């Protein structure tokens, strides 16, 4: 879900000398042999930059992604749902943390990545710029958004960069309950009162198309993924993953008795897959450009939280320094006494 | 004003008694006490462990991947260190 | 589920269980408001852990309350269908999060009380309460440790953090008196060995607090005037807003299943 960064071409690649080219060849040979690249290994600068951008964007998506669902923690309709939602949103903080750590092994600190996000220089997944208006949106996010995320994240467990792949293994393992949690909410609503079922249908209507956009622009328009595929960072194309998602999701929606908001959605017997209608790429472009319904609100919340926490982080660092000084002084005093 | 960077720590978990501590990831914390608590809160939410180590990332000394051949290649020819190098007739049985 | 607010006969035992449950739920609710907004990512996860422990404790106590009350009531009936005046939590836990210092001071104050309280409750003659307390006490011991370490860092950090911690302590201190009050109905339960006597925990509470405050270069506020009434259903204005959030869906769709 969060690989939209790979759709931006790296334009800062330096001109390679012969020695650099030989190293790059050896590097590619390792990738081709399915070897994992580790933090201290030599890597082309473009590989480092591409990965840093992708992993940090993935991390930002997890952190910003806490906000739309976080909205509903205090309003969850039962104690069981409340605990599950809180645990899920907490998991997203954890996933952001694992991912920032993986990106840090490439030489960019979490502080720098935070600064990039808060200054608006870094992107995050377009999906989190849509509002959560009803409780059914929590179901829809779990079912659809997490479903789309899983499609994208499972292949990333085999990404060529070791720390990213290992973080994704952990994320995928923890995330297995997220989608089920969402689907169960949808199922309960669809079996509930007419108002509840309408709530579920409305959520599907609003989330379906933005979810399809999560996979990024159509392959025909994104020639940029070639290099990422060669480096085995991205193993499937945007359209391949989108198709997998549609094929997996449509029967689940039918089981719920819901209608997908796409009159062109039809099963292609010959191909054995679901054909879907035209995605509004202009909307996608606008949301990425900062014009989605909630872009400004999400960024403001992140900036406010970071600013409000500055004195806390400063105090804790000051205390650690005081402690270190006191320990140092005590040691010196002990030495003096011994002498 | 640029904020001070909060130190990075590496986290190791012993998942069961009898097993060694294994590296699971890293986190940021201002000091050792908070690092240990954060490790507990971040990395053991699903009953992953019985014991935790946290180590300042800066304290880890790593071998240089460029030295890989010098460091690890010479061992490849010492096949006499492996039991299968020696022949024991089948009749003698397991040894 | 019926559509109106819950009306049930509140025996002293039920009232006692609900006070424990309501404390845990309202505190968990407050802590969960931090999710996504904490000073650092690690702390976001830590606060959510404490909140989840509290919600879990609340559920255990509500489930027992439902058993005691009978009539097919569930944990959610107690959480979602009682009015402000029926809630029995202490005023301390419903106080707003404030800044991070406010949240940490509130946590230290409540944990320094609840942790020894649960430990004493493990010896209850009521086996269910004793079992819930045995599990919960391990959680509250960690809450105290975690919030205590933070309070030490805030108190003995920078001038600003010290001032904020000091202000939070002054603000919340008047809500600690209620923790040690005992009404006649509760007195009978204490007499029967069902609940511990909070008055007996005062010395331990003071000692724990003085130890943490000492390291934090803070002192106990001098004020002696204490607020009260939460246990009897007389709350601060804040609880109404908490319940408006918490109960919104159940109230808007009476009888629905979620």
Please tag this protein with its features.
heterotrimer; A: 339 residues; mainly alpha; Ferritin; two-stranded antiparallel ribbon; 67% helix; globular; C: 258 residues; 0% strand
Description:
- The complex is a heterotrimer of chains A (339), B (95) and C (258).
- By secondary structure, chain A is mainly α.
- Chain A has two domains: 3-279, Ferritin, CATH 1.20.1260; 293-338.
- Chain A has helices at residues 18-32, 45-70, 79-104, 110-118, 135-156, 162-190, 194-213, 225-230, 238-256, 281-291, 295-308, 310-338; strands at residues 266-268, 273-275.
- Chain A has a two-stranded antiparallel ribbon.
- In chain A, helix 2 runs antiparallel to helix 3 and helix 5 runs antiparallel to helix 6.
- The radius of gyration of chain A is 23 Å and the shape is globular.
- The model of chain A has no long low-confidence stretch (mean pLDDT 93).
- With 95 residues, chain B is an alpha+beta fold.
- Chain B has one domain (8-86): Ubiquitin-like (UB roll), CATH 3.10.20.520.
- Chain B has helices at residues 32-43, 68-72; strands at 8-14, 22-28, 51-56.
- Chain C has a single domain (12-221, 229-252), classed as Up-down Bundle (Ferritin).
- Chain C has helices spanning 12-32, 41-69, 75-80, 91-94, 100-121, 127-155, 159-172, 184-191, 202-215, 238-246, 248-252.
- The longest helix of chain C is centred in the N-terminal third of the chain and has 29 residues, at 41-69.
- The N and C termini of chain C lie close together (12 Å).
- Chains in contact: A-B, A-C, B-C.
- At the A-C interface, helix 2, helix 3, helix 6, helix 11 and helix 12 of A face helix 1, helix 2, helix 3, helix 6 and helix 7 of C.
- Chain C: InterPro entries: Aromatic_CoA_ox/epox, Ferritin-like, Ferritin-like_SF, PaaA_PaaC, PaaC.
- Chain C: Pfam families: PaaA_PaaC.
- Chain C: This is Phenylacetic acid degradation protein.
């Amino acid at each position: 879900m969060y690989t939209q960064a790979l759709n931006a071409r790296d334009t800062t690649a330096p001109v390679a000398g012969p020695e650099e080219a030989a190293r790059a060849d050896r590097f590619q040979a390792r990738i081709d042999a399915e070897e994992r690249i580790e933090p201290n290994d030599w890597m082309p600068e473009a590989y480092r930059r591409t990965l840093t951008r992708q992993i940090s964007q993935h991390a930002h998506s997890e952190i910003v992604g806490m906000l739309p669902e976080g909205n509903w923690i205090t309003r969850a309709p039962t104690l069981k749902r409340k605990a599950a939602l809180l645990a899920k949103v907490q998991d997203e903080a954890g996933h952001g943390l694992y991912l920032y750590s993986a990106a840090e092994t490439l030489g960019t600190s979490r502080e720098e990545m935070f600064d990039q996000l808060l200054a608006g220089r870094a992107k995050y997944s377009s999906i989190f710029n849509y509002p959560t208006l009803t409780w059914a949106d929590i179901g829809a996010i779990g079912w659809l958004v997490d479903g789309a995320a899983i499609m994208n994240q499972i292949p990333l467990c085999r990404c060529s960069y070791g720390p990213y792949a290992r973080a994704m293994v952990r994320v995928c393992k923890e995330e297995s309950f997220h989608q089920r949690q969402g689907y169960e909410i949808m199922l309960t609503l669809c079996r509930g009162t007419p108002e509840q079922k309408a709530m579920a249908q409305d959520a599907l209507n609003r989330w379906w198309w933005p979810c399809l956009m999560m996979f990024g622009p159509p392959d025909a328009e994104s020639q940029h993924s070639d290099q990422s595929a060669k480096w085995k960072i991205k193993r499937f194309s945007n359209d391949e993953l989108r198709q997998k998602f549609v094929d997996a999701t449509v029967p689940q929606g039918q089981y719920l008795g819901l209608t997908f908001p796409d009159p062109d959605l039809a099963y292609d017997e010959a191909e054995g897959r679901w054909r879907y209608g035209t995605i509004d790429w202009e909307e996608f472009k606008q949301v990425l450009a900062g014009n989605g319904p909630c872009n400004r609100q999400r960024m403001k919340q992140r900036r406010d939280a970071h600013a409000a926490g500055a004195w806390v982080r400063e105090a804790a660092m000051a205390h650690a320094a005081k402690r270190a000084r006191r320990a140092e002084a005590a040691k010196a005093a002990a030495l003096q006494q011994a002498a | 004003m640029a904020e001070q960077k909060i130190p990075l720590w590496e986290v190791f978990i012993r998942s069961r008694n009898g097993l060694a501590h294994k590296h699971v990831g890293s986190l940021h914390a201002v000091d050792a006490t908070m690092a240990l608590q954060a490790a507990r809160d971040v990395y053991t939410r699903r009953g992953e462990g019985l014991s935790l180590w946290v180590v300042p990332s800066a304290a880890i000394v790593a071998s240089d991947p460029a030295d890989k051949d010098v460091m690890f290649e010479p061992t490849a020819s010492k096949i006499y260190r492996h039991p299968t190098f020696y022949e024991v007739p089948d009749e003698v049985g397991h040894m | 589920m019926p559509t109106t607010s819950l009306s049930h006969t509140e025996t002293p035992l039920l009232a006692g269980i609900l006070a424990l449950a309501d404390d845990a739920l309202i505190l968990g609710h407050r802590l969960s408001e931090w999710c996504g907004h904490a000073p650092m990512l690690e702390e976001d996860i830590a606060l959510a852990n404490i909140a989840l422990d509290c919600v879990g404790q609340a559920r255990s106590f509500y489930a027992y309350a439902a058993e005691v009350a009978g009539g097919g009531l569930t944990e959610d009936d107690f959480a979602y269908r009682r009015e402000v005046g029926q809630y029995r939590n202490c005023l301390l836990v419903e106080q707003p999060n404030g800044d991070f210092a406010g949240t940490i001071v509130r946590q230290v104050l409540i944990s320094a009380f609840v942790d020894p309280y649960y430990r004493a409750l493990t010896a209850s003659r009521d086996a269910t309460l004793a079992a819930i307390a045995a599990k919960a006490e391990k959680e509250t011991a960690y809450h105290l440790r975690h919030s205590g370490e933070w309070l030490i860092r805030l108190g003995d950090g920078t001038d600003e953090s010290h001032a904020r911690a000091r202000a939070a302590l002054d603000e919340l201190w008047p809500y600690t008196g209620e923790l040690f009050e005992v009404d006649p109905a509760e007195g009978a339960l204490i007499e029967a060995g069902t609940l511990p006597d909070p008055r007996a925990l005062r010395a331990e509470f003071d000692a724990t607090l003085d130890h943490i405050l000492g390291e934090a270069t803070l002192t106990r506020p001098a004020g002696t005037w204490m607020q009260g009434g939460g246990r009897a259903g007389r709350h601060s204005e804040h609880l109404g807003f908490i319940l408006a959030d918490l109960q919104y869906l159940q109230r808007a769709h009476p009888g629905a299943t979620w």
